[in-house]
Design goal:
By secondary structure, the chain is α+β, with helices and mostly antiparallel strands. The protein has a single domain, classed as Sandwich (Immunoglobulin-like). Helix content is 18%, strand content 56%. The protein is built from 3 helices and 8 strands, in the order αββββββααββ. Strands 1, 2, 3, 4, 5, 6, 7 and 8 form an 8-stranded antiparallel β-sheet that branches. The longest helix is centred in the first third of the chain and has 17 residues. The chain is globular and about 50 Å long.
Length: 154
């Protein structure tokens, strides 16, 4: 009996949360604010922001994101979201990421050469998004060509 009462409430909540149309994934726009936040003799902490457009007419919160990042098939490291991001409907939003790269990895990359050509940036991980305290985990799979000299520096 309790399930029969709970079922219409759950259905109403789902319809309110999703609206009448299908939920669309955010659209990637650009990478910004690439820079070194901190460095030592062993590693460097690198930060950047990823900007997306939310095509949905409702907002959500991005609570947690984590991705393994590769640059031209070289593993850079695990990057995590710096802070919770509130996303408005039909608007751009940026997620700040940071991660630690070993100094050996940074020295092995020819940054001068990489800055003048298209490089393959790949990220695999997850993101937790939600509304009203209910969060779901969604996968992140991104692959795209970028020129490092065109990314706005921090």
């Amino acid at each position: 009996m309790r399930w029969k009462l709970f079922s219409p409430i759950l259905l109403l909540a789902c319809l309110t949360f999703t609206g009448c149309r299908k939920i669309q994934d955010p659209e990637f726009k650009r990478i910004d604010h690439l820079g070194i936040k901190n460095w030592s003799f062993q590693n460097a902490t690198v930060g950047f922001s990823v900007t997306y457009f939310n095509p949905n007419n409702f907002g959500v919160s991005v609570k947690e994101a984590e991705a393994d990042v590769y640059l031209d098939s070289s593993y850079l490291g695990k990057f995590t979201q710096d802070s919770t991001v509130d996303v408005k409907g039909n608007s751009d939003f940026s997620i700040p990421f940071s991660g630690t790269i070993s100094l050996q990895t940074a020295l092995n990359m020819n940054l001068d050469s990489l800055a003048r050509k298209d490089v393959l940036l790949k990220a695999d991980g997850f993101v937790k998004v939600g509304k009203a305290g209910i969060y779901i985990t969604r996968p992140i799979h991104y692959e795209g060509l970028h020129r490092l000299d065109e990314i706005r520096l921090q």
